[in-house]
Amino acid sequence: MLLLLVPYFLWYMLYRKKSEPTMKMSDTNVYRFAPKSMKMRLMWLPDMLRVLTFILIVIILARPQTHTSWGSRTVEGIDIMLAMDVSTSMLAEDLKPNRIEAAKDVATEFISDRPDDNIGLTVFAGEAFTQCPMTTDHASLLNLLKNVRTDIAARGLIEDGTAIGMGLANAVSRLKESKTKSKVVILLTDGSNNMGDISPLTAANIAKSLGIRVYTVAVGSKTVAPYPVQIGGTTQYVNARADIDTKTLSDIAATADGHFYRATNNTELKQIYKDIDQLEKTRLDVKKFSRHYDAYQPFALAALVSLLLEIFLRLVVFRRIP
């Protein structure tokens, strides 16, 4: 776009000067060597300001960005791992719209309200894996939480079932190197342990030895719940009986100095996360890495100043009549 300045300069040199007003006099020889005032010497300034404004606008349109940068700050927070059951039974609709979506909605609100905490996410069914390691980059964490689905077992990515011990052990492994005073696992499930190589109480004892507090949440109705079943291309609902091992979940919480909760509706589920606010906070040194960010603002300001200055000079200082 800067090549557009070439025809502008040609127009200025060939036509602009010829169109300037002149005064017909019998003899102008006397003015040839007359001294020029400062105002006459700066007659070119408005045109140069116009060129400068155009160049700055082109730079802005090119969207300049900085290179990578680092920043650091000190915050108060705790280390938290969310261990979430993603077995197919989490599709039951006793919570609205269903158990898994209700759990994700409450977890999203919880994460958004705690910007200074190191939070990670483990998901488990018949097996467990880390969906997101602990991070203060909550935008990435929320994006990964949004993508959590219950069909990973149906698609053969992991075995179906409920491996509570494996889910807890996976979350604990992410916290074992933590140096904070408060380390927490929030374990949410709607079933009983029927898969995995590690028993829930063994994982709870490991958590206790590492100073990790475990909150267990049994989510779902105490009796039966509507569960969607695909039959002949249509969705039918059956009443599925609750199969939650509340005793094991209560023992896990007691062993790891946490609390056991029973959430039969969305309101109770939200209340559980509020109790985390009572935990002691620990000072954390957080480093933030930014790969790119826009840097057009100084050029935009300079372009505005250049444009306003040109207008002022043309209309006031170098005003021409006619």
Keywords summarizing the entry:
six-stranded mixed beta sheet
Task: Provide the fold topology.
Blueprint (H helix, E strand, L loop, with lengths): L4 H12 L21 H4 L3 H17 L7 E9 L1 E7 L13 H14 L5 E7 L3 E8 L2 H9 L17 H12 L7 E7 L10 H10 L3 E7 L4 E8 L2 E8 L4 H10 L4 E4 L2 H9 L7 E9 L6 H21 L5
Parallel strand pairs: 2-3, 2-5, 5-6, 6-9
Antiparallel strand pairs: 1-10, 3-4, 7-8
Helix pairs in contact: 3-10, 4-5, 4-9, 6-7, 7-8
Q: Could you please describe the fold and organization of this structure?
A:
With 322 residues, the protein is an alpha/beta fold. Helix content is 37%, strand content 23%. The protein has ten helices and ten strands. The strands form three sheets. It has a six-stranded mixed beta sheet, sandwiched between helices. β2, α4 and β3 (118-124) form a beta-alpha-beta unit. α3 runs antiparallel to α10 (297-317) and α6 (164-175) packs parallel to α7. The radius of gyration is 34 Å and the shape is elongated. The two termini are 33 Å apart. The model has no long low-confidence stretch (mean pLDDT 84).
Task: Offer a quick outline of the entry.
The protein has 322 residues and is an alpha/beta fold. The chain is built from ten helices and ten strands. Strand 2 (79-85), helix 4 and strand 3 (118-124) form a beta-alpha-beta unit.
Q: In sequence order, what are the helices and strands, one letter per element?
A: HHHEEHEEHHEHEEEHEHEH
Output the radius of gyration. Answer: 34 Å
| Backbone structural class | alpha/beta
Helix content: 25-40%
Sheet with most strands: 6 strands, mixed
**Tally of helical segments:** 10
What is the oligomer described by this structure? single chain
Strand content: 15-25%
- Given the C-alpha coordinates, what overall shape results? elongated
Low-pLDDT parts are: none
The total strand number stands at 10
Averaging pLDDT over every residue, what do you get?
Answer: 84
Strand order of the largest sheet: 4-3-2-5-6-9
